[in-house]
Write a structure and sequence with these properties.
With about 100 residues, the protein is mainly α. It has one domain.
């Protein structure tokens, strides 16, 4: 992945985090995608048919981030998103914080 592609993917990740922190029908689906990357065992997987139920721009961002995940092989905290993902867990998987 080129540096330009990587920078574009990190920008896409930033947009997806913003969507996941909002309160729309698409935010839950985006949250599921992001949390599956963070910890699929604890947070659950991502149903790729959810790509049918988000705007094209959001689906494109998910695909960009998927390429980033595959090529870089890092978790989101490597890109400075640890606090954002911890907040996503609190927003979308609060039961995981009760232990």
């Amino acid at each position: 992945m080129s540096e330009d592609d990587r920078a574009g993917a990190v920008d896409a990740l930033r947009r997806l985090v913003e969507v996941a922190h909002s309160d729309t029908g698409q935010s839950r689906r985006v949250g599921n995608f992001l949390l599956a990357w963070w910890n699929a065992d604890a947070c659950g997987g991502f149903d790729f048919t959810d790509l049918w139920n988000v705007d094209t721009a959001i689906a494109d961002d998910i695909i960009r981030v998927t390429r980033l995940i595959a090529s870089a092989q890092y978790y989101p905290d490597a890109y400075g998103f640890r606090e954002d993902f911890e907040r996503l867990v609190a927003d979308w998987r609060p039961q995981l914080l009760k232990d």
